[in-house]
Amino acid sequence: MLVARRAEMLLGDVILSHTGNNKARHILCATGNNLDALVNLIVFNAKVTYLSFPISAPREMQNDGDDSFIQVINEAHRLATQEMIVHRKRSFISPLAIDELPIVFKFKNSADGAAQVDFDCRTDRWSLDDLWGPGAAILPCLTGVLNFPMQQIDNAESSIRTDVGWRDRRLVLQSDSLAIVCPKPPREDRITRGVNEEIQTAVPLGIMCNIWQKPEWDTGNFVGTIFPPAGSMGGGQTQAVVQKVATLNDLIRAEP
User: Fold this and answer.
1) Which CATH number fits domain 32-253: 3.40.50, 3.20.20, 2.60.220, 3.30.1300?
2) Is residue 211 within 8 Å of residue 251, measured between CB atoms?
3) Most confident of 6-10, 72-76, 106-110, 229-233
4) What pTM was computed for the model?
5) How far apart are the C-alpha atoms of 165 and 43, rounded to whole Å?
């Protein structure tokens, strides 16, 4: 299945390269994405905004009993849902529409000698209903518990982890802009590796990167220091295409 998914994306790019139509697009939009994103792409030829944000840090905080970061990410997606309904020329794509790493996490945390990994899409992955709103995804999560042989997950783990970075890069490359939510986790002065790589992919291509950082999580303006505004004498390429916005609403409403 993993090999087929890779081939599907590459085949789409090959077909696109032979169309001779410079207006044709090959957009990756997973079944866990918002339905309005797909409708807006097909019917209204919408521009694509990629939702970029830390994923591991919110999960780690939730495991420690703090779901505040999870709630921020969910709020950004729900605002994106509303924006796509009001403005049909917008389409937001989220990496959480494809969320297979929790299968690997469950495999790693399984008891010694376990024969299989029991995975429930409704409870073991990031909730699509919490993300987009109830019933807003293109297709709902599978119902029931899926049983994966331990050896099968062990064999697939490296491919799954490789696909995450490869696919996220693909999602950036197809986008007209990035909406970046809290690249700095609370209590840490760093831009998470995944978000930083996505910014570094977007900048050379001139893809606009809008950033919102929750003020309470960055009282020293670390993000503003890493990505300062262009001065009176201008700035480099990063300063030209990376800008910090004041509110989460401003982030979602910023047009590509």
Assistant:
1) 3.40.50
2) yes
3) 72-76
4) 0.93
5) 30
